[in-house]
Amino acid sequence: MNSDFRPVELRHASRLINHGPTVLVTSAHGGRCNVMAAAWSMPVEFTPPRIAVVIDKKTFTRELAAASGGFAICVPGAALLDFTYAVGSCSGRDGTDKFARHGVAHRSGPVLGMPVIEAGCAAWMECRLLPERHTEDAYDTCFAEVVSAAADARIFSGGHWDFREDNSALQTLHHLGAGRFVVAGGVVQAGG
Question: Which residues form the Flavin reductase like domain (predicted)?
Answer without folding.
Answer: 15-158
